[in-house]
User: Which sequence fits this backbone?
C-alpha cells in the first residue's frame, strides 16, 4: 500500500515558500527602505536584520531543492523559463550578502556597501516579483520542456508584479522596523509603511482584476456559481486586513502593522492558490503530474519530518534571543 | 559566430562550483581542526588552545559565510542551465541534495551559532560539543554531495522508465560503487588542504615573529598530521584509480593519455595529447610502469581510447594534465612534510628561513590540487553527466541560447570576482593581525550573542541587542 504523499509535500513546500516570502521578505524590505534614509539610520536598519537575514535566505535553498525533489517537472520547466530573473536575483542576493558583511570593515567604504545593500535588496525583490508574475501567467511548454525564449518573462504583468512585490516587501520591512526601532526612525517607518500599503493595495486590486480578464480559467474559478459564494470572503477579508493595517500604521501598536502585513501576504497567497489549484505549471501540469516518484518523496520525507521541526524551533529561539529594540549607541565602536 | 549553450553552461558551472568548492575544501578540515583544539582546551585547560581555537574560528566564520552565499546559487544551476538533467535524474539524486541542504542548515542553525558566539555564554563542554557537531555536520555535507556526484559517475540502484531514472534501491544509490573511494579521497584532500593552510599561516606568523608559540604549534600539529595523511592520500588515490579502471575505463584512458590499447602498458609521464589524431605527441614513457601501477602486474592490459566510439571519448588534455598537476603537488607536499619531520631536532624547522618560506608558499597548494583533481574526474566523465547513460549535450536546458548563457556567465564572473577578492583581502587582514594576545577581552559579539558570521570575525557591530540573558561565565577563560 502506498500513501499519496503529494498533499503532504504540497503543504510542506507551500509553507516553506510562504515562510521564505515573509521572513526574507521583511529583511529585503528593510534593505529597500534603507536607501531612503540617512546613513546613520541605514546602519540601524541593517543592524536590525543582521542576526537573522542569512537564516532567512537559507530557506530559498530549501525551497528550490524541495521543489526539485518533490515536483521535479515543475522545477525543470519553471526555472529555465525565468532564467534571467533567477540569475539576477541570485547575484543581487550574493552582492547584498557580501555588502552586508564587508560594510563593517572600513568606515570609508561603508556608504558604498550600504548603497550596494539597498540596491541588491531592491533588485532581488523585483526579480522575485517578476518570477511570480511569469509563473501566474504560465509558460510555453511542449512535452516536458519549456520551449519559449529566455526573455519571455518580460511582460507588463510580470513587471507589475515585480513592482508590487517591492511595495509588499517594503511594507513588511516597515512593519519590522516599527517593532525594532524607536523615535524618529519608527515614526518614519510608519509613514513609509502607509505609502507602501497604498502601493500594495493598488497592485493587489490590479492583479485581481487582470488575471481573470486575461485567463478565462481563473475567471471561471472565481465567478462561477457557487464558487463565488464560497470565495467572496477572500477579497472581503483581504480588504478588512488592509484597513486594519492602515489603522495600525497610524496608531501606537508596534507589532500589529507587521502582523497585519503578514496576514495580507497570506491572503494574497491564498488567492493565488485558489486561482491556480491544482496546477503547479499553470495550464500544463498538476501537482500530481509533476510529482517525483513515490519512493523519492517517501525517502526524503523521513528526514524532513525530523530535521525541519528542529530547524524551526531553533529559528524561533534565535528570534527570541534577538528580541527588543536596536539602538544607535549599540553596535559600532 | 554562434555560441554553444552547452559549452557555455559547462563553463558557467565550472566558474560557480570552482569558487564554491574552495570553501568546503577549507572549512571541512578547519571544522575538525577547531574541534581538536577545543578538545585539547577542554581536557588540558591550557589557554594557548583557547587562543588558537579563537583565531581559527574567526577565519572559519568568514569562509563559512562566503560558502553559504556562493552555495545558494548552486542548486539553482540545476534548474536554470541543466533542466533536462534535473527532469531525468531528480527522482534519484534530488533527495541526496535535499539532505545535504537540510543537514547543512541543521548544523548551521543549531551549532554554528554556539561555536562562533557562545564562548562565554555556554558551559565549556557544550562549546566543545558544538565544535564537534559542526565538524560532523561539514562531513555530512561532504557525504551527501559526494554521494550525488558518485552516483553520476557510477550510477546504481535505479531503473529507467520512459527515459527517466527511478529509484529501486536507496542503499545502492547512496553507496554507489565509486562513493567510498571518492569520499575518503576527497575528505582526506580537504584535511590536507587545511593542514597546509594552517602550516602556511604558522610559517607566516613565525617569519614575522608574531604569535610565536601559537605559530609553532600550528606548524608542528600540521606536520604531524600530514606525515600520516599525505602518504595515506597516495594509497587512497591508488584505490580510487583502480575503481575508475573498473567502472570508467574511458576516463582512466584519458587520465593516462592512452589512445592505443597496450599490454604491457607504459606510463606516460608527460606528453601533448592530440584528440584530433588520437596521438600523444612528445610522449615520455616509462615501460611497464602503467601496467604495474594500474593492474598491479607487469603485463596488465590498459584499454586505450581508440577502443571507444569517438562520440564516447572524453577530451584528453584536461584530465591528463589535471591528474599530473594533482600528483605533482602531492609529491611536493610529501617532500615538504618529510623535510619537516627530518628537521624536527633542535626546532630547526622553526628557525630555517627557507623552510618557513617554503611552508608559506605551499599554503595554497591544496586548493590547486583539489581543483585539478576535480577537473580530472569531472572532465574525465564527459561526454556524460550520468556516466554511460545521459549525455551532457542532452542535459542542458533546451530553451537556452548561447547568448543567454554568455550574458549570465559574464554576470557571474563580475560578481564572483568582487566577492572573492574582497573575501581574500578580509581574511588576510585577520591572518596579519595574528593570534590575539590576551583572551580576557570578550568580543562585543560574545557579550551580545549570535550575530553574523563575518561580522563576528571583524569584531564589528555585533550587538545591537540587549546583553545576553543567561551568560554563563566560562571558567578558565
Assistant:
Amino acid at each position: 500500500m502506498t500513501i499519496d504523499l503529494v498533499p503532504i509535500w504540497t503543504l510542506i513546500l507551500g509553507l516553506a515558500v510562504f515562510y521564505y516570502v515573509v521572513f526574507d521578505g521583511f529583511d529585503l524590505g528593510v534593505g529597500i527602505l534603507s536607501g531612503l534614509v540617512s546613513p546613520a539610520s541605514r546602519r540601524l536598519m541593517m543592524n536590525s536584520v543582521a542576526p537573522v537575514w542569512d537564516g532567512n535566505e537559507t530557506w530559498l535553498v530549501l525551497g528550490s531543492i524541495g521543489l526539485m525533489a518533490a515536483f521535479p517537472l515543475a522545477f525543470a520547466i519553471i526555472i529555465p523559463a525565468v532564467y534571467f530573473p533567477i540569475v539576477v536575483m541570485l547575484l543581487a542576493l550574493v552582492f547584498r550578502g557580501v555588502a552586508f558583511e564587508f560594510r563593517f570593515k572600513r568606515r570609508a567604504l561603508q556608504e558604498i556597501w550600504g548603497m550596494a545593500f539597498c540596491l541588491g535588496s531592491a533588485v532581488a525583490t523585483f526579480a522575485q516579483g517578476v518570477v511570480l508574475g511569469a509563473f501566474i501567467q504560465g509558460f510555453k511548454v511542449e512535452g516536458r520542456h519549456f520551449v519559449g525564449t529566455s526573455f519571455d518573462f518580460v511582460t507588463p504583468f510580470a513587471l507589475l508584479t515585480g513592482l508590487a512585490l517591492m511595495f509588499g516587501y517594503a511594507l513588511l520591512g516597515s512593519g519590522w522596523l516599527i517593532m525594532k526601532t524607536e523615535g524618529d526612525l519608527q515614526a518614519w517607518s510608519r509613514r513609509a509603511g502607509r505609502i507602501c500599503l497604498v502601493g500594495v493595495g493598488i497592485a493587489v486590486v490590479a492583479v485581481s482584476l487582470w488575471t481573470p480578464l486575461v485567463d478565462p480559467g481563473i475567471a471561471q474559478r472565481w465567478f462561477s456559481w457557487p464558487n463565488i459564494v464560497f470565495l467572496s470572503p477572500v477579497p472581503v477579508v483581504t480588504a478588512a486586513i488592509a484597513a486594519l493595517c492602515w489603522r495600525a500604521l497610524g496608531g501606537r501598536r508596534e507589532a500589529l502593522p507587521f502582523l497585519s502585513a503578514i496576514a495580507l501576504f497570506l491572503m494574497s497567497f491564498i488567492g493565488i492558490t485558489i486561482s491556480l489549484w491544482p496546477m503547479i505549471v499553470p495550464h500544463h501540469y498538476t501537482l500530481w503530474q509533476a510529482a517525483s516518484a513515490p519512493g523519492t518523496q517517501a525517502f526524503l520525507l523521513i528526514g524532513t519530518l525530523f530535521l525541519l521541526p528542529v530547524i524551526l524551533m531553533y529559528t524561533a529561539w534565535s528570534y527570541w534571543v534577538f528580541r527588543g529594540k536596536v539602538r544607535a549607541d549599540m553596535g559600532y565602536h | 559566430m554562434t555560441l554553444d549553450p552547452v559549452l557555455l553552461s559547462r563553463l558557467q558551472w565550472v566558474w560557480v562550483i570552482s569558487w564554491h568548492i574552495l570553501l568546503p575544501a577549507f572549512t571541512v578540515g578547519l571544522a575538525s581542526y577547531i574541534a581538536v583544539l577545543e578538545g585539547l582546551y577542554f581536557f588540558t585547560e591550557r589557554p594557548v588552545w583557547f587562543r588558537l581555537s579563537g583565531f581559527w574560528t574567526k577565519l572559519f566564520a568568514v569562509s563559512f559565510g562566503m560558502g553559504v552565499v556562493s552555495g545558494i546559487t548552486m542548486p539553482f544551476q540545476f534548474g536554470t542551465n541543466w533542466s533536462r538533467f534535473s527532469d531525468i535524474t531528480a527522482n534519484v539524486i534530488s533527495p541526496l541534495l535535499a539532505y545535504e541542504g537540510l543537514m547543512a542548515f541543521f548544523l548551521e542553525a543549531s551549532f554554528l551559532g554556539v561555536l562562533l558566539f557562545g564562548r562565554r555564554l555556554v558551559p565549556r563542554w557544550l562549546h566543545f560539543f558544538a565544535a564537534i557537531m559542526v565538524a560532523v555536520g561539514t562531513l555530512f555535507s561532504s557525504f551527501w554531495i559526494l554521494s550525488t556526484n558518485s552516483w553520476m559517475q557510477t550510477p546504481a540502484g535505479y531503473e529507467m522508465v520512459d527515459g527517466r531514472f527511478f529509484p529501486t534501491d536507496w542503499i545502492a544509490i547512496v553507496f554507489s560503487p565509486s562513493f567510498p573511494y571518492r569520499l575518503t579521497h576527497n575528505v582526506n584532500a580537504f584535511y590536507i588542504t587545511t593542514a597546509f593552510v594552517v602550516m602556511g599561516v604558522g610559517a607566516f606568523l613565525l617569519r614575522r615573529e608574531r604569535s610565536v608559540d601559537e605559530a609553532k604549534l600550528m606548524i608542528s600539529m600540521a606536520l604531524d598530521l600530514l606525515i600520516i595523511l599525505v602518504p595515506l592520500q597516495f594509497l587512497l588515490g591508488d584505490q580510487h584509480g583502480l575503481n575508475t579502471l573498473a567502472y570508467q575505463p574511458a576516463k582512466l584512458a584519458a587520465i593516462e593519455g592512452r589512445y592505443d590499447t597496450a599490454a604491457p602498458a607504459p606510463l606516460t609521464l608527460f606528453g601533448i595529447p592530440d584528440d584530433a589524431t588520437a596521438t600523444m605527441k612528445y610522449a615520455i614513457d616509462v615501460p611497464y610502469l602503467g601496467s604495474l601501477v594500474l593492474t598491479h602486474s607487469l603485463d596488465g592490459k590498459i584499454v586505450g581510447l581508440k577502443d571507444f566510439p569517438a562520440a564516447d571519448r572524453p577530451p584528453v588534455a584536461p584530465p591528463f594534465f589535471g591528474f599530473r598537476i594533482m600528483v605533482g603537488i602531492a609529491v611536493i607536499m610529501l617532500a615538504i612534510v618529510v623535510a619537516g619531520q627530518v628537521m624536527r631536532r633542535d626546532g630547526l624547522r622553526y628557525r630555517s628561513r627557507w623552510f618557513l618560506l617554503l611552508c608559506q608558499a605551499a599554503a595554497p597548494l591544496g586548493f590547486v590540487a583539489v581543483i585539478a583533481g576535480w577537473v580530472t574526474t569531472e572532465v574525465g566523465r564527459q561526454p556524460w553527466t550520468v556516466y554511460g547513460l545521459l549525455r551532457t549535450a542532452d542535459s542542458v536546458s533546451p530553451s537556452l541560447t548561447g547568448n543567454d548563457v554568455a550574458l549570465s556567465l559574464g554576470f557571474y564572473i563580475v560578481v564572483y570576482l568582487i566577492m572573492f577578492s574582497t573575501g581574500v583581502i578580509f581574511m588576510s587582514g585577520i591572518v596579519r593581525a595574528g593570534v590575539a594576545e590576551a583572551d580576557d577581552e570578550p568580543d562585543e559579539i560574545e557579550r551580545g550573542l549570535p550575530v553574523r558570521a563575518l561580522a563576528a570575525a571583524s569584531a564589528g557591530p555585533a550587538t545591537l541587542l540587549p546583553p545576553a540573558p543567561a551568560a554563563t561565565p566560562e571558567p578558565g577563560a
User: Anything to note?
Assistant: Residues 438-477 of chain B have pLDDT under 50 and may be disordered. The two ends of chain B are 66 Å apart (CA to CA).
